[in-house]
From TrEMBL:
Residues at which substrate binds: 9, 68, 144-147, 179, 199-200
The reaction(s) this protein catalyses: D-ribulose 5-phosphate = D-xylulose 5-phosphate
Protein name, entry field: Ribulose-phosphate 3-epimerase
Annotated GO MF terms: D-ribulose-phosphate 3-epimerase activity; metal ion binding
Length: 221
């Protein structure tokens, strides 16, 4: 696979033209579509669910869809997103009672499984399930909204997560989500991250393929 994966977050897309926005950002060179699911319970916002994921698939989107669950409880929605055509499903360990079971549900559904860590959450929940993780996702903002400022202390945490993955010798992506821009993406990569989510830095005016491509190209560079 590719060394670095760029995953635009549709949270900053124009939801009234979602199919077109997703097509455009893929044409602009995005590798994966990051799909933020919030429930106004675990996270202070309400976004989209399996129905919208299914609609993107039925619209002809074949790129991987990376579902970021900011919901509690998680297990019922794992099943729904497996059926809706998700490729990766990640959840926050404190949002489910049986972390190992939820991870297993994702892999049993044929998807890649991830754990997500908020800025203040320790990486301990990953320790005994390293062999069951395809993605470790570090939040560099608090869940809820696009356009927040990157929290720099997550860079040291990323180095720690990179060591955990390398020590375990597993095939696991280290992903970061929140406030990633053209200006800080090099620091993020230097900390060992190989999958970058970006919402507001990519999806902004003018909402054209050319503009999305310019940002994605600069991020890759
Ligand atoms: C925050 C979401 C992020 C967000 C990223 O709760 O999980 O995926 O959309 O947006 P930016 O890149 O604008 O911080
Ligand atoms: Zn996200």
């Amino acid at each position: 696979g590719k060394k670095y994966i760029i995953a635009p977050s549709i949270l900053s897309a124009d939801f009234a033209r979602l199919g077109e926005e997703v097509e455009n950002v893929l044409r602009a060179g995005a590798d994966v579509i990051h799909f933020d699911v919030m429930d106004n319970h675990y996270a202070p916002n309400l976004t989209v669910g399996p129905l919208v994921c299914r609609a993107l698939r039925d619209h002809g989107i074949t790129a991987p869809i990376d579902v970021h669950l900011m919901v509690s409880p998680v297990d019922a929605l794992i099943d729904e997103f497996v059926k809706a055509g998700a490729s990766h499903i990640s959840f926050h360990p404190e949002a489910t009672i049986h972390v190992d079971r939820s991870l297993q549900l994702i892999r049993d559904g044929g998807c890649r499984a991830g754990l997500v860590f908020n800025p203040a959450t320790s990486l301990d929940a990953a320790r005994y399930v390293m062999d069951k993780l395809d993605i470790m996702l570090l939040m560099s903002v608090n869940p809820g909204y696009s356009g927040q400022k990157f929290i720099p202390s997550v860079l040291n945490k990323a180095r720690e997560a990179r060591r955990m993955i390398d020590d375990a010798g597993v095939d696991c992506r280290l992903m970061i989500d929140g406030g990633v821009t053209v200006d800080n993406i090099r620091d993020v990569a230097d900390a060992g991250v190989d999958m970058m989510v970006s919402g507001s830095a990519i999806f902004r005016a003018p909402r054209t393929v050319e503009s999305y491509k310019e940002t994605i190209d600069r991020m890759r560079a």
